[in-house]
Predict the 3D structure of the following.
Amino acid sequence: MNDVAPPLPEIDCYRLVRQQIEHEDNLVSQRLSWLLGSQSFLFTAYAISLNGPTQIRSKQLETHLGLLLVILPLVSIISAFLIWMAVLAGTWTMYKLRRTYEREFVKFFGSEIPPVQSTGTALLLGHFAPVILPAVFMVVWLLLMLRN
């Protein structure tokens, strides 16, 4: 019995690479949504903690509030960092898939079919937000932590 699978036609390889890139791109979009959702929730919690009524604050509440004003930025920085690493992993995977496609399969098609992903400036601009936003949030939270 022959255990070697027959080679896939080039067009099927194109489709597989493109589908994998689309999948990774969707994951990056989901991760960006996680980032924005988590950061908006944590900023809201931070703002509420800062602006609570001062007349009903007890010594114990002040202690908890002080702890909360340290923990919220830490949680925010950690979550932004973890999401950033996941976004970078997705963009790196898309880069590797593009390079593999260009090295192995583009010679079969030339300009007959669209590229597996945007190229040049469009690709660069498309990755700005998911790659840079987590770092922006981390810097903002660090500034808030240093200010307190």
